[in-house]
Write a structure and sequence with these properties.
This protein is mostly helical. It contains 27 helices and seven strands. Strand 4 and strand 5 form a beta hairpin. Helix 12 (233-241) packs antiparallel against helix 13, helix 14 (260-280) packs parallel to helix 16 and helix 19 packs across helix 20. 25% of the residues are buried.
Length: 601
């Protein structure tokens, strides 16, 4: 069409200017190929746009009809705020279609499916959230995916936080948790990928230098704190604990806090901050943000199993890094028992594998706590941990020889720590210095701190094994057992005394950081002149757990028998024919004796 217009324009020009010398009229203007270059750029841009449109049309045509119907149905459910339909589409439909059509490839891009949803930008933002989550979980994201997923997250949270009033949107709690969880996971993944400078291409180095604020720690923390502030979730939790009425709570939290969308996003952001501060290595602050959240079965986070497991995992790990092993054991025992009881329901969840992986890591952390602070344990959890990590548990009780086992379990079970400060991509000289002398990896830094605590307690298992054999013992004799002089023996005993003291939460404590100093060991001693007097406190066996487990087992057996079909009844057929004479015994047969033999006549 443009060529036709150009031809007509040239024809008109030739008719009107037949006698005019164009070179004199316009000189050399336009003769330096500038116009031709502009025209070529215009043609190229037009060609690219046409090619993109044709590619989108081809991509749209390649979408299976069942996927198109699903997207239309999903969009309609979101428009109508139909939580039941949204939940089915989110938890069942999306995953089923992923397994069938997109197990090893990307879902269609949002621009391709836009005509199906009337170019609804809000739904497209939600669709991209699912799209990039699929890329991160099933595929290998490139730098464009990482940057675009950040941009989409910013659009989503800007819509939620900066709109004029609360947005008219309702999403199931599982999806709200997954939005926060995936936001933090993509931040963690980007930070880990960003530190690997040597593997970056020149294009990636340039983009990282220009986009140094992409997935910055400040922006992630700002989102989480903004959601907490907007929803006033802490005020809501305190009002519930004080027993205020629904009307009073609504007045306190305002127009945002009364909406389930903002309330649950704010609540899940508290759990998100627990995770982010743990990844950054600030374990005290991680527990501090949880001061208003109660760790019990009635808390809102228990309604989403993945959130429930994540909360206890990070709380328990923070306690380990703060040397509060008894509190860590209590947290791990609580959640691992919950997982054992609810395992039959987890198999139905699309997050079953992730929950199992986190449970395995918590068993490893439980074994570490047991080695550092032996105490009365839940037999069921301890036996399961012994089945999975029996070799490491044995090694950890051997003093210096057990340090590699501690290191192995810690690296396996700890979070993937991140660094808050990115490499200096914007300055080539500083970047080269960073490559030549890289900083210590965050995981190695935390491992070093943890192993320093372990090495300080190396003599404790050996000393404990000797003290358990006596009620009183001469100090010199004990020193001979330890192959040490008396001064060194006293130092080891003081280490053991210190290791058996720890801060632990009280029954009705306010926050997770509150507590009082208690003795965590069942073995205590005093030194009187040259004698060591040992006292071992024995705790009676707890039979309640045994009876509960066996009662539940008996109930399951009873339910199985009750639900099984009854055996078919045997029908007695009435004999209508006359009775026939019994057949005569064989000629050579004799009468049977009592034990089944035949008595020969």
């Amino acid at each position: 069409m443009s060529q036709q217009r150009k031809a007509i324009w040239e024809a008109d020009l030739d008719e009107e200017l037949q006698d005019v010398d164009l070179n004199l009229a316009i000189g050399s203007y336009g003769q330096n190929d500038l116009y031709n270059d502009v025209q070529s750029r215009i043609d190229e841009a037009t060609l690219v746009a046409v090619q993109q449109q044709m590619a989108q049309q081809a991509a749209f045509a390649s979408i299976p009809d069942v996927v198109k119907r699903f997207i239309v149905h999903f969009h309609q459910a979101v428009l109508e705020n139909n939580l039941a339909e949204i939940t089915v589409a989110y938890e069942s439909g999306w995953n089923r279609l992923t397994e069938k059509f997109y197990a090893k490839t990307e879902w269609p891009e949002a621009e391709v499916i836009a005509p199906l949803v009337n170019d609804d930008q809000i739904f497209l933002i939600l669709y991209r959230e699912l799209y990039y989550r699929h890329v991160y979980s099933r595929l290998q994201p490139d730098i464009d995916d990482r940057f675009h997923s950040y941009e989409n997250s910013c659009e989503l949270f800007n819509y939620l936080l900066n709109s004029d009033g609360p947005v008219p949107l309702q999403l199931p709690e599982q999806w709200l948790w997954d939005i926060i969880d995936e936001f933090i996971y993509q931040f963690q993944s980007f930070c880990t990928w960003r530190t690997k400078v040597k593997s970056k291409t020149d294009e990636e180095l340039q983009l990282l230098g220009e986009g140094n604020q992409v997935w910055s720690s400040y922006s992630v923390l700002n989102v989480l704190y903004s959601l907490i502030q907007k929803s006033k979730i802490n005020e809501h939790i305190l009002a519930l604990q004080e027993g205020k009425s629904t009307e009073e709570i609504a007045e306190i939290v305002g127009e945002y806090g009364v909406r389930p969308l903002y309330r649950m996003l704010g609540y899940f952001s508290i759990i998100g901050l627990l995770r982010v501060h743990s990844l950054l290595g600030d374990f005290t602050l991680a527990l501090k943000v949880m001061e208003n959240v109660e760790l019990n079965q009635k808390s809102p986070f228990t309604r989403v199993t993945a959130c429930h497991v994540t909360t206890y995992y990070y709380v328990g790990f923070c306690y380990i890094m703060l040397r509060r092993y008894s509190d860590a054991i209590r947290a791990f025992v609580s959640i691992l028992n919950f997982i054992l009881r609810m395992r039959q329901y987890h198999t139905r969840s699309y997050q079953y594998d992730q929950i199992n992986k986190t449970a395995d890591r918590m068993y490893a952390l439980f074994a570490i706590c047991n080695a550092l602070s032996p105490s009365r344990l839940d037999d069921n959890i301890f036996n399961t941990a012994k089945e999975r990590f029996g070799e490491q548990i044995t090694k950890m009780s051997r003093g210096e020889e057990g340090i590699p086992a501690f290191e192995e379990l810690f690296i396996y079970a700890c979070p993937k720590f991140i660094s808050a400060n990115p490499p200096p991509y914007e300055d080539p000289e500083l970047l080269q210095a960073y490559i030549d002398d890289p900083p210590v990896e965050p995981i190695q830094r935390h491992l070093s701190l943890f192993l320093s605590e372990v090495r300080a307690q190396v003599p404790v298992p050996t000393l404990r094994s000797f003290l358990k054999l006596y009620t009183s013992l001469d100090a010199k004799k004990l020193a001979n057992f330890l192959d040490a002089d008396e001064e060194e023996m006293v130092q080891q005993m003081m280490v053991m005394k210190q290791a058996s003291r720890s801060i632990s939460r009280v029954e009705n404590g306010k926050g997770l950081l509150d507590g009082q100093t208690i003795s965590t060991s069942d073995l205590d001693f005093v030194i009187d002149d040259n004698m060591v007097h040992i006292a071992e406190s024995t705790v009676g066996r707890r039979y309640a757990g045994w009876f509960i487990r066996n009662t539940e087992h008996a109930q399951r057996v009873y339910d199985t028998i009750k639900s099984s079909p009854l055996p078919p009844r045997k029908v007695n057929v009435t004999q209508t024919q006359p009775a026939q004479a019994a057949p005569a015994p064989p000629r050579n047969a004799g009468a049977k004796v009592a034990w089944g033999g035949i008595k020969v006549a």
